[in-house]
Amino acid sequence: MKTKIIIAVLLLISYSCNSKKEEQNVSKNPITEKIISLTDKQLKNAELTFENIEKRNISATITANGVIDVPPQNLISISMPLGGYLKYTKLLPGMFVKKNEIIAVMEDQQYIQLQQEYLTAKSKLFFAEKEYERQRDLNKDKASSDKIFQMADAEYKSLRIMVNSLAEKLRLININPNSLTEKTISKSVNIYSSINGFVSKVNVNIGKYVNPSDILFELINPDDIHLNLKIFEKDINGLSIGQKIMAYTNSQPDKKYQSEIILISKDISSEEHSAQVHCHFNNYDKTLLPGMYMNATIELKREPVQTLSNDAIVTYEGIDYVFIKKDNHTFEMASVKAGKNENGFTEIINAEKLLNRKIVSKGAYTLLMQLKNKSEE
């Protein structure tokens, strides 16, 4: 009894294996015939049309990704060279500011001291200048010794240097020394925007003391915000300055931003084998912020290549084929290597064997089915 059961199981396994092999053989069904002949009736029903391989301008596109970037000259860091306490600001990230607009007010006792020192030195300079002129006239008439004249000259020059240096310190904190008087001394100084742009960062709050090295605010000039793309080494040679690209964000892929290439890096990274390509937006959108991730489609240079219409190319088991007319009733299936595709036409890379030959366009799939059925018989 056990022997019969074992034999039955073995027969079942053998049958199953044979069935799978038959299914695999049926599923592949390779086309062994490459030539097909049609009767007059089949030709009439197929309604075949023909074309010649022809040179056309075909452009390829590549996709890339990158981030919105700001060049160093358009990213402004605002600080207070002498430090101090923040008395007032209304800035918030994203706010637009105009050039020379007051964006903050600082106060500190050292501002008072600096103004005092300047006015005092300026007053002493006035006296020293008069004394210098008096000693100069006396020395000409030998009514005064050279030593006294030289001392007056040294004092005058020393005070003039001090006044000029203190004036530059005042300008550093936005105080005009030419309009400063004993009546206009103030504990507060204003900070002005140096550009028309947007506030990127606010790093302080009212009442906080900041050091000269601390960055209070960061401003962005949007005139030169650009897209920094990462392009792989194999695609770099197809790019050029002025080339147009279309960029879009992940959140709004249908909204396109037209840009053009302004700089192609000559440095290829060793890790990713890629280079940076900088692109300028034709029309900057305020919703695009530095650091935002973007995608881009780049159209490579257009060049004339040998092409066929898409209808002429049929694909079977991952290989592209075309049908070449041998005579009025006979056609030969030939494999081809397809390249770039645009506007209904496909580049044929190995086009030599197709030159000056009639290629089936409409009806190519009909011929493929005829050959497939013939191979299965």
From TrEMBL:
One Gene Ontology cellular component annotation held by this UniProt entry: membrane
GO biological process: copper ion export; plasma membrane copper ion transport
Transmembrane segments: none
Domain of life, source organism: Bacteria
Keywords of this entry: Transport
Leader sequence segment: none
InterPro entries attached to this UniProt entry: Beta-barrel_RND_2 (IPR058792), MFP_Cation_Efflux (IPR051909), RND_pump_MFP (IPR006143)
Any one Pfam family match given in the protein's UniProt record, by short name: Beta-barrel_RND_2
Coiled-coil spans in chain: none
CusB-like beta-barrel domain residues: 227-299
GO molecular function, one term: transmembrane transporter activity
Family: Belongs to the membrane fusion protein (MFP) (TC 8.A.1) family.
Alphabetical list of NCBIfam families matching this protein: RND_mfp
Name of the protein: Cobalt-zinc-cadmium efflux system membrane fusion protein
Source taxonomy: Bacteria, Pseudomonadati, Bacteroidota, Flavobacteriia, Flavobacteriales
